[in-house]
Amino acid sequence: MKKIIAFVLCLVLVAACLCSCGKADGSSDAAAENNGGYNIEYKNLTAGYISHTSDLDATIMKSDTFECMDDFYLFLPKGTELSYPNNFAVYCYNNQFALDTALTEGCGQNMLRYSVQVSSDVKTLSADCYVRLSVEGKVKDVTITVPDGLENQVFTGTKEDLLFAPQIKAVENVLTGRESAINYIFITDLHYDKDPTAQKSEALFKQVKAAVEIANSNDSIDFIAIGGDTTSGMYATKAEALKYTAEILEPLKQSRKPVFVAMGNHDDNSYHSFHTDGFNESEIVSDKDWSDNIIKTICPENIVKDSKYTDSKYYYYDLTAKKTRVICLDALDYRAKHDASGVIKTLPVKDANALNEKEKYWSGTSYWGYSEGQMQWLTREAMTAPDDWNYMFISHMGVDIDTMSNHYETKYGATLRSILAAYKDRRLVSNSTVSADFTRAKGKVLSYHFGHTHRELTKYSKDIDLWQICTATAQVSTDAAVIGAPKTEQDTKGNDWVSYDRKYGSENEACMDVISATSSDIVKFALGAGSNEDLKYE
Hints:
By secondary structure, this protein is an alpha+beta fold. The protein has two domains: 3-158, no CATH class; 165-536, 4-Layer Sandwich (Purple Acid Phosphatase, chain A, domain 2), CATH 3.60.21.10. The protein is 19% helix and 28% strand. Helix 6 (238-249) runs parallel beside helix 8 (287-298). The chain is elongated. The relative contact order is 0.09. Residues 6-39, 478-485 and 500-508 have low confidence and may be disordered.
């Protein structure tokens, strides 16, 4: 039997904009039972008549006899029937909220010069779509009959409300039954510029906002992680670099879940100097600049940084209820010296004999990896949680050479691997850099997640019993997403890893991963372009 959705006009603004599963906008069970169906409370009704003036927009012409929906939509599944005893019109919109004439006509609504010929005939949707209504009388009296079993696909709200509704529902379905896992959203390599095309800029902001909306709408999500290379790092001044980094990250301040931001090799703004004639180290973003302007404004107050290095761009955060410590590493830890205001005075020397001035010093263009100090902090302070706790790692770069762009070796990657191996084997680790005792450890490193390569990658390493996961770039293109066949290869230790040649997403889709990790498996769910995987631990 088909479900009939009865409308109840809400005279005040409803608190919840999106419908909940089974009952729209949080309506009570009693209300649903009393009306013999599911209540949809809606707002922003405007008395008037809608006359379409273009394929992309609609204007409202006032009329005393017609009532219509203003900036408010219903997302209804294919096969839904709409009926009303008087004249009424149905307008169908695509997923970009543009009026779709073919869909509108396909559901039985005749269009003539974009003016509506109203009728009282039953109208049936020929595809999933957003709809708006205009009726001779009251919109609340329209009967909407949804195909049996599809009632949970109904969403209501303004255009802004509905923008992320399908993604929210998809994530909810994936995480059902996995509430006790560590669940998070990972988005990386936005490469935001100050003057991209409006289309690309809007798409990037849409992705960041989507991450926030999804996290806020799902109690199972524990945090959001930004994997680095937030901007291109091609600004004339570091003031601009910091300004535009903060600009694209601004929506994250609305997140009700913790947000962790890793620094990428482009984020220190050294690429501007590297690709221009001038070379001015004072326009490079220092550790203090990043710590004061990004970490302190976006990340939780109770993150724990290096007690021996106040300006560390690496830190950890405890998910106490789930006995898990999230460690955010800094893959750009070249430790340039700066003054009290954060201005870099001296860059570390890379090659004193280099003929090119820019090749003499380390910066984001060349130093890719960690530092001795960071590895010491990792064993001295970070991996010191209670014995039965688990760990998760967030970084811009992977552990191994096989996971890096152009097979570039991650600095101190070998040291990091030795630490992870010792933890997995419950033994001591002692070398010229670090010393730690993991003999009493009972937990597990659940995952190591990074960006940087601009492609999807998953790799399981047997010697450290760890899945390394790389999320593709969130950078957008006007072309469709490119997803090639997966390539299964082997690293230098004989471990299998799978790479997907996904380089760019289109301007109308997201590219982020939702991860659900336990000690036995990791569910990787791609929002937008990408692949879904169930990664098992042995």
